Structure formats: C-alpha cells, structure tokens
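Researcher: Please translate sequence to structure tokens.
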Amino acid sequence: MSSSTDTASAAPAPEESGGKYPGKGFHIGEYVITDFLGHGSMASVFLAADGTGHEVALKIFQEGPGVSATMLERFRREAEASKKLRRHPNIMPIYTTGRDGPYHYIVMESVRNSRTLEAALESTPMSLMRVVEIIIRIARALQYAHTHNIVHRDVKPTNIMIDEFEEPLLSDFRVAELMDWPSCTLTGALTGTPLYMSPEQARGERVGPASDIYSLGVVLYEAVTGVLPYAIQHGSPVKEVLEAVKNELPRRPRLFRKEIPPDLEAVLFKALEKEPRDRYVDAEAFAGDLERVRAGRPVSAHRFSILAYLRHLTRRYRRAILAGAAMLAVLSGAGLLFRQRLLRIRFEELWRRAQLKNALYMLAEAENGAGFERETPRAWNDIRLARKAMIGGAWGTARDGFRAAADISRSVGDTRTSAIAELDQARCEIMLNNRQGAQALYHRILTNPDASPAVANMAQLEYIEMALLEGNRERALEVLMLHTPPPEGPIRISMKGLAGDLSSRDVANAVENMQHPFRNDAYVAAAIRAYLDGEGRLAAGYLKRAIQASSPPSEWPAPFARLLYADLGR
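Model: Translation complete:
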C-alpha cells in the first residue's frame, strides 16, 4: 500500500490484519521498524527504514479497543497540520503520512541525535542570548503555523527539539487546532499541558494564536530564570496550577537572574499578559521584540515599574475592592459600627491577600534586590563549576559544589534543579567510596515529585546497581516501587538486565540500537549482571567497552566503570 494513502475505504479492518503491536522488523507500508523510541499519550514513535534504507522516525497510532473516534480524529488532524507546515525550517520535517490496516502513521525526520529543549537546558545551561535566539526561531515557526490557520495549543520545552546541528524544531501538533476545521474539543474541556497553558486555555475556552504566544512566553521565562512564572512547581496539583495560571501575576524575572536585561523582562511581561488582547498582536511581533533585545535596541513593550505594577494589581482586584468599599459605605450610613469594623477588617484582609503575593516585587525593588542571592541561576553556576571539578577528577570539590547547588535550589523552592544537582552529587559520593550517602541521595530524588523523568530514571537505575552490588536484592525491589520505570527503551532494557529478565549478552547486544548517552549505562548494567552470574571475565569485558566508548573519558558512567574494573582485577 502506498504510504500516501489516507482513505479509510482502502484499509482492511483491524481483525483482518491481526492488530499486532509493532516491534522490531515489523512492516508498515514501505517501512520496516528497526528500534523503539518512545510512547506518547496516543501514539508510539519508532525508528524505521524506508525502501531505500533511509532512516526515518515513524509515529504510529493503532486502532483497537478503547480507541475513541476523537482520538483517531486528533491523530488525523496532527497528520494534516504536519503536512501543511512541512516546509518551515524550524518545524519538525514531515515526509508523508499514511495508513496500513489499523495503523495510521506519520513519517518524520529521524530524531535519533536530537534532544528536547528541556533536556538541553538540564545538561548544559545556555546563555541568555542563545535561549532568546531559540525562542525567536520557534516564534517564527508559530507565526508560520498561524498564517496557515493552525494553533499548536501545546507549546512546551519537551515539544521543542534541538537537532544535531543545534537547530530548534517545533514538534508534536497532536492537539493542534485547525481554525478552518470544526473543533473536536468540547466546550470547557482542557487541551494542552497545564503548566504552560494560557489563562483562556485554563478556563476551557477555545483559543487562538495569542494562546501559543503566552505558552512560548512561559517557556522563555523558565529557560532564562530556571523557575516558572508563578509560585508553583512541576509536581503541583493540577487545580493549583490552573488557579495560578488564571489569577496570579507573573513574578519579576530579574528577581531570579539579575543579568536579564530590563527590555527582556518587559517582553516577557507582555507575552504573559492575562488578557489575549494585551499580548503581542502576533508571534512575529514577539520575535521582533526579541530581535531588538539581542541587538540592544529599544523594544515596543513597556519596562517594569512599581507604579505600573500596582495599577495592574488594582485593575485585577478592582471589583472586589469596589464591592468592599460599597458595602462599607452602606453599613456606615446605617450606623452599624460593629459590622462596619468587621467588614473593614475583611476588606483590608482581601486587599492584603492581593498584595502579599506581590510584596516580593516591591521589597526587591526597594532594596535593590538585596537578599535574593540564593537563586536558581546561582545554583546552576555551582553546578557548572562542580561539573568542571568532576571532569578533572576532583570528586570532593565536585561533591561540595553539587551539595551547595542542591541546598540553594531547595531554599528557593526549585526542587527540580536540586534533583539534577543531587544526581551528580550521588555519583561523586560513589567515587569517594560513600555508597550509603549516594543511596540516600538517590532515594531523595525518587521521592521528589518535581524531579524530571530523565533524572528520576537515571537515579533509579543507579540506585538498583548499588543495591545489587551490595547483594541486597530486597532493596533493589523496593527501589523499583519508588518510581515507575519507563515502559520501553534503553533504561528499561538495562533494568531488565539487572533484574535477570535479560541476560548480560542480551543487554550488550541491544546497545548498538541505543542513543549514545545510554550505551555506556547499558554496558555497566550488563557487566553487573554478568558479575552477579559469576561471569567475571565477561563483566570485565563489558566494563572495558564502557570505558573505551566514553567520549570524553570523564563522561559518566566511565569513572564508575573504571572503579568496578579495578575491583574485578583484585
């Protein structure tokens, strides 16, 4: 069947094709699956080869029990949106779409050597201007989508890919709204990711291009400050997140990173306006102001001032203030002194609540930022310095740096960054022969609801390795209960090897199909499995591969592999 076939009548029914779950060697259209990449909420992504052997990424949605007509329609719309936008250089390239029996698919550029913006920021903090440059390109990609009557509706760091040439690509139009198509979202239903939603999205209203501008503003804010615009975390309950998005004014970016130019702060405030009409008129205008920030030219957005902020605050709470004032006047005229005093207290409390959330801004302005040295960007500076010490083998210095970064992050409520620092701190503790300390850190990460999945997965894998090396299988099983392991992929393969569900040879054989960052972790897992099975020479061989394949030689887990290799030689 041709890969460009989209008609339902040409496809056999699911039961005729057997409805088998795709796996390695599976044929769909002209494509042969070679590896699994990951699951989404509706579809799975695989590496595949076309008829000429060219590598592509294949996103597959499979019909079957429990699959609703709405889910199928969403996938169809993603395919349609992707085809419309395939020509833009900063939108994930789509080659074609098709259907083969119960399998609907989108053929994309291979993403083997790409990483998400979230992963890129976690691994190597970027300069302000590099982040701004990325957002400019994504803003223009959104402008291109908007001119083609497509609203993305789920702009977030994990939907922005950084390819092997360091180019940003906007991806995943799974919940995109095609403005010239009837909506398939029920009125009042939420679509998107709450932390990055616009206020109108959080209210369940139908959204337009201004909503994407808001979401991209949140992405930019988090990328340059290390925190979200509101006093919420990634692990906060959805109800609290939605209330913050709808009602809280964003915190001043410069409170978290002093080197943010006032003009960039002004651009962020404009992009994050609560009312769509107060934001940039379109994504190109947003990109244009960011270009002016890069060039050091004045922007169209107004800079922050205490007076303007207080006016903004007053406008937001005007109804409550006027209602309170009117009630006080009525009661005063009636001469009800006790009730008047009671309602005055209530009125003052209402006004205090409105101001308490924003008192931090005023205090910082008045004191010129004094007292805000313990901020997340400083923590990232400690992480960078500690990683340099780690590369040089100065494990004690590196440990102290990571510990300081974790303490700073927790002190400002940024437990996401503290988990990143604690993962590297645990590795330093291992190299300093403090495995108990390392395990305590791994446990803290796995019980931290704000730790990113990537950090939690690695902490779980390394914690299990520590437990098994001590011969404590019960603890290893307890670690598995602390965090849900990934259902598929290289980390899962390594864990299955450690558990004995796969042999050390099976794990090692799977390495060639893994992304580079996971290969050496798999070799170490295979070595530990071989060691536990009494195959010392085989374990040494796998450790040697992990050491030799590391580039640079200091890249984790190579130092750990050297430590284990030395132990095997005793």
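Researcher: Any highlights?
Model: The radius of gyration is 27 Å.
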